[in-house]
Amino acid sequence: MRPDEKRLQALISTAFDRLPEPDPARVKALEERLLRRASRPAGRERSARFRYWWLVAALAASGAAAWWAGEYFAREPKHDAPTSFETTGSRSYVEKRDAERPPSEDRQSEASGPGRRPDIYRREQY
Amino acid sequence: MTEPADLIRSYCAKGDQEAFRRFYRAQAPKLWKFLVARGCPSDEAYDLLAEAFLRFIQTVCRDPRAPVALLYRIAINLRIDSYRRTKASAIEAVEDLDQLSATAPEEPDDYDQIRRLVTNLPESEQNLLLLRYWIGFSHKEVAEALGLPEGTVRRQCAEALHKLRERWDEDESNHAA
């Protein structure tokens, strides 16, 4: 006769419960072996070890970040040193002198006549 | 009686070996029988039992809320690996179970028939039915042990029972013919 669901569930439970039991000596031997291994719960040991690894990893990461930042800023382009005018708003003595110098002085030294180059060497006239 | 989860919590928190021993004694014989029922030869079942408990010790303290489901999950995965390694056929597995049953005391035909019908179901359905109706897991625990959603476990359990009833009918009609 076809069993209903309840009967089927009960049959499954009883049928498999009736399988032979394991050998108690072998189960006991395994128990002793396991208890030696279980003397320190692995999860706790492991989590403590992982905590240290996280610390080491964090230190390594911060060291790497600092090194990278140092490299990055060292490679930044250097600006020319600002003139005293740029920094203080006033000109230095040399800059003032050059600015106030009359343009004729420059021309005299640069050329002996208009449109000509300055004479470096001139043949003697007898 | 102390719950398995309480025993394991005590073991993980205080390293209580006595709690672990009680957990082992409560679970080991049934887990061995489960492995045999799943088609594992009896000698290999001892090896898998040892391996399952060793892996259990290494992982349970990370989350000791459902230790029994975790233990069965480990054992099922080990059984699958071992099955793939040895490439044992399903026929061999059933024969082994039949040999074991033959050593059991005389019993009604119904038990023999239901064992045969269950062991001829697909692997996933065998796991579902044995964990739910023999080991006595709740749907949630079965879901944890098999890594499935709880709703899926409920639906698949109902389907597996329905299939079992149909096969029972076919079996009966074959015998009658």
Short summary:
The complex is a heterodimer of chains A (126) and B (177). With 126 residues, chain A is mostly helical.
Distance between the termini of chain B: 51 Å
Summed over residues and divided by their number, the pLDDT of chain A gives a mean of: 76
| Greatest interface and its participating residue counts | A-B, 35 and 52 residues
What order do the helices and strands of chain B follow?
Answer: HHHHHHHHH
Alpha carbon gyration radius of chain A: 48 Å
Q: Could you give the count of β-strands of chain B?
A: 0
Write structural notes for this entry.
- The complex is a heterodimer of chains A (126) and B (177).
- Chain A is mainly α and 126 residues long.
- Chain A contains six helices and no strands.
- The longest helix of chain A is centred in the middle third of the chain and has 33 residues.
- Chain A is rod-shaped and about 150 Å long.
- The termini of chain A are far apart.
- The model of chain A has no long low-confidence stretch (mean pLDDT 76).
- Chain B has 177 residues and is mostly helical.
- Chain B contains nine helices and no strands.
- Chain B has two domains: 88 residues, Rna Polymerase Sigma Factor, Chain: A; 81 residues, Arc Repressor Mutant, subunit A (Orthogonal Bundle), CATH 1.10.10.
- In chain B, helix 4 packs across helix 8 and helix 7 packs across helix 9.
- The longest helix of chain B is centred in the last third of the chain and has 27 residues.
- About 3% of the residues of chain B have low confidence.
- Classes of the chains: A mainly alpha (126), B mainly alpha (177).
- At the A-B interface, helix 1, helix 2 and helix 3 of A face helix 2, helix 3, helix 5, helix 6 and helix 7 of B.
